[in-house]
Fold this protein.
Amino acid sequence: MRGRGTWWAAVAGATAAALLAAGCGPGAKPGAFGRQAAHAEITAAVEGAGLPESDLPGTGGPTPTGSTPEPTPTTERERVAARMAACSTGWKYVGPLVEGSRGDFDKAVAALVGEKWVQDQRQVEKLDDKGSTMVAVTLKKRGWTLFGRHHSAPQTLSLEMISLQASEDSCMKQFTDKELDLLEGEGGEQP
């Protein structure tokens, strides 16, 4: 059985690899809580909390009209990544330290709880003696699981990584261990 960290890494990597995949997972019904609704709630929480802007264009959102289409996937890894991206949506910031971002991350999580996302787990870790920390939270809503992460390494890297990544549970269940291994780079194909 896979650990949550491994699964999260696969989801995050696949989403980053296929940012412009559109639509909800297979079988989504009109009016159901889907990818666009999850994305709208995440971006509203991020904006309302004052988190920094993501430098990833269209992260998990609908493809902008007139945008250059993504090339057709040519490797099995790219095809699996595109399928996984259609199951997911999110927001991510990787960049220089931002004053107060930990509190803003907590505000974003609270805003999502206000939208009826139910907090399942929360973990806070001190990573080293130089002030590096990691906060991880798991939220659930109507067949979706959201992983929120805030990593801060002020003295070692002068870097922050903040993400809110949601995936549709039934859509994610379609992936085999072999496909997840492929996304993690264990299947012989490299990105």
